[in-house]
Amino acid sequence: MILEHKGIPIFYQDEGKGSAVVLLHGFLENSSMWNAVKEELIKTRRVITIDLLGHGKTECLGYVHPMEMMAETVHFVLKSIRIRRAFMIGHSMGGYVSLAFAEKYSSFLKGLCLMNSTALADSKERQELRARANKMVQTNFENMVRMSVSNLFKPESLNLFSKEVELIKNEALSTPVQGYIAAQEGMRIRPDRTSVVKNASFPVFYIIAEEDPVLDLETVVEEAQKNHAKYIVLEGGHMSHIENKEKLIASLISFVK
Fold first, then answer.
1. Cβ proximity of 54 and 183 under 8 Å
2. Distance between CA 173 and CA 180 in Å, rounded?
3. Residues 6+ apart with CB under 8 A from 183
4. At what angle do helices 67-80 and 177-188 cross, to 10 degrees?
5. What is the DSSP string of 40-52?
6. Topology of domain 2-256, CATH
7. Strands 230-234 and 109-115, how do they pair?
8. In a structure prediction context, what are the per-residue pLDDT tens digits for the chain, which is 257 residues long?
9. Range list of H helices, 14-160
10. Beta bridge partners of 91
11. Chain-centre distance of CA 105, in angstroms?
């Protein structure tokens, strides 16, 4: 389904009945990443998936997509389809968007799950990597995207889930260069939002991967503990919905109950 927002199409899907659950994808992904998760959740829940700005079938809204702008777009969709309260689950960049949403629209949330994500801002090193990637992608898009996707998995998973990895790469390659750059810059400038987790009036749940190449295990566990949030550590890398699908789905079903 398509909604028009500020002159661009926003793609979303709204399926199932019951309490609402909103699923937000990560960088270079789109709402199709949730297909296996959604299949289970819609048995008992109303599930809304949204293509974030510059991803999937949703177009770009400028040359920088701050997390706040993406959160405002999510809010627009939820208001348009008359969702008053929902659980929100965000994978990686989707987690950053969820936190920006929680900061501004906390009354909408029944609970927040940060899946392979963090409330911390980028380190200086990470900020420099994003800026460098944005320069390189302008002349070497395909190689950069393929490398970015491979770097999300633990090495053994690349062979174990080779078909899924190739599918994700092909989906990622459909992202426009502008969408890549705008999202990277939005993530690069995002602030620390640990206070959102600490002061949340709703439950916050972290899904952390043991061998995540993007996020340090000990740092994210400490973040969850310091802010009195529940968490689970799963085997695998950054792509828990591929590398540890069954345990991830079980964890999410338990969370939204």
1. yes
2. 10
3. 27, 52, 53, 54, 55, 65, 93
4. 110
5. HHTTTSEEEEEPP
6. Rossmann fold (3.40.50)
7. unpaired
8. 999 999 999 999 999 999 999 999 999 999 999 999 999 999 999 999 999 999 999 999 999 999 999 999 999 999 999 999 999 999 999 999 999 999 999 999 999 999 999 999 999 999 999 999 999 999 999 999 999 999 999 999 999 999 999 999 999 999 999 999 999 999 999 999 999 999 999 999 999 999 999 999 999 999 999 999 999 999 999 999 999 999 999 999 999 98
9. 35-41, 67-80, 93-104, 124-136, 141-150, 155-160
10. 115
11. 17
List C-alpha distances in Å: 140 to 115, 159, 177: 29, 25, 10
Q: Are the C-beta atoms of residues 193 and 100 closer than 8 Å to each other?
A: yes
- Sign of the dihedral through C-alpha 245, 251, 256, 257: positive
- Per domain, the residue ranges of the chain are 2-256
The strands making up 46-50's β-sheet, listed across from edge to edge, are 2-5, 8-15, 46-50, 20-24, 86-91, 109-115, 204-209, 230-234
> Which pair of tokens denotes residue 110?
């029944």
Residue 173: phi and psi, rounded to 5, are -70, -15
Provide the Cα torsion 246, 252, 254, 257; round to 10°.
-140
What pTM was computed for the model? 0.97
CA pair distance 23, 37, nearest whole angstrom: 9
**15: β partners:** 47
DSSP 66-92: -HHHHHHHHHHHHHHTT--SEEEEEET
What token pair was written down for 167?
Answer: 């599918």
Q: Is the dihedral of CA 243, 247, 249, 254 positive or negative?
A: negative
